[in-house]
Specification:
119 residues; 2 strands; homodimer; flat; two-stranded antiparallel ribbon; DNA-binding; Multidrug-efflux Transporter Regulator, Chain: A, Domain 2; mainly alpha
Chain lengths: 119, 119
Amino acid sequence: MRIGELARRTGVSERSLRYYETQGLLAAERTPGGHRDYPETAVDRVIRIQELYAAGLHSEKIRQLLPCMRDRDGGPSAIATPRLVQDLTAERDRIDRMIADLRRSRETLDEVIRTARDA
Amino acid sequence: MRIGELARRTGVSERSLRYYETQGLLAAERTPGGHRDYPETAVDRVIRIQELYAAGLHSEKIRQLLPCMRDRDGGPSAIATPRLVQDLTAERDRIDRMIADLRRSRETLDEVIRTARDA
DNA sequence: CTTGAACCTCACATCAGTGTCAAGTTCTAC
DNA sequence: GTAGAACTTGACACTGATGTGAGGTTCAAG
């Protein structure tokens, strides 16, 4: 599929998809004319990338992580090195703290909303 | 208390505390010489501000929100307007989606970590 | 007093993903 | 073959909280 359709199906801009490619996160075949041609699996991958970005991971970590992930259709094509495992564990802990923070903020907002509604 | 101690106790940099003041999020008395003098309640407030920033709220929203929050020692000093409630509800929904995304990323990382450990 | 830590304001830099525009090429359908 | 949509690369802008450094002032303890 071409970049326009991939953008539409994932909700990620064409600009970002091209950026992901420069970061080594997303490969694409090329048509004879040079247009990108993505496999169907790109949809899942882009969504995964987007989620990881949202979780605060940087391109480099995502790039290292991607080959170690289990794809929808198969097992991982690589096993994380001890060094990577250490990094990812730190990231996971950071995400846990982030979730805890978000919960508190969510509760704060919810309380303000409820207070206003009950007034 | 002065800015250095507040920074130490909250883990937020002095730079950020001064920035919060320019954004109307954090008030301080001044000594005759011009140094900031914070009340004890500033500690809780700063932590709360930090959490809201981490949740993706911008200064302006936090500024509107703060007076409507229940402080540790008392009730809110203002009630959110319908317009603000609408905004905050949107933010709350966004935070919910963010938490869901984070959970998925957390699970992704965890699986890679477990796979590596079991190998 | 003096001295050093702590504080003040102001200004400029940074980060990294994304938006946007320009100028040119390819694709597809008629 | 031609029109227009879709694509290409490249460059520049932005966001907005935070880092950092300069140059000067205040505070607190000896």
